[in-house]
Amino acid sequence: MTIHETIKNQIKEALRAKDTIRLDTLRGLNALALNEILSGKIDKSAGDYLPDDKMLAIVKRSVKQRKDSIDQFSKGGRNDLVSKEKAELAILDSFMPAMMSREEIKFIARQRIDTMKSTGNFDPKAGGKITGMIMKELAGRADGTDVKAVVDEILATV
Description:
Layout lengths: L2 H15 L2 H19 L13 H24 L3 H15 L8 H18 L7 H12 L5 H14 L1
Helix pairs in contact: 1-2, 2-4, 3-4, 5-7, 6-7
């Protein structure tokens, strides 16, 4: 079952449970997905559901928006809105894949750097290039700030 199918099923459950925050959050995600489908950017061979990679991008965007909103509402002293955004963020987080730990990232980063050293393509001053390469490989399974911190830590010892 795709993420989009799961969201549509959970909308029905939220309706039955009269869980308005969950319902509004899921309906928002579904609307964003339908906009992607109707825009014509997506191959319709998958049917009425958005592929997981595209749906995950929408969820990530929504998570980022909620985090920004929480920050802004906190600065503005709007605790009522902060709690609503946090509740929505918890719902959105349930659709996000589990993030890798720093130790797992460190293991992969060391492998990539060792490979680069053995092929002669290693430049200790190219931390950004190495970080980008690892981020591409991990494709959403690791937080970018964690990857950058790990790469910087490894390069500092080289």
